[in-house]
Sequence to fold (49 residues):
Amino acid sequence: MWVVYLEMAFALALLILIVWFTWPKKKPGAAPGEGGNAGTGRDGPESRN
Fold:
């Protein structure tokens, strides 16, 4: 039975790691709720780096 719990813990940890590393990062200087670079006229691919 302990193997099942170990496997469940491993799956949960893997899910948390995937979500953590794929969560979008905040832009520096962006106010909360501002929406990143909205309204700045810099919507090209260069601004997404």
User: Anything to note?
Assistant: The chain is about 45% helix and 0% strand.
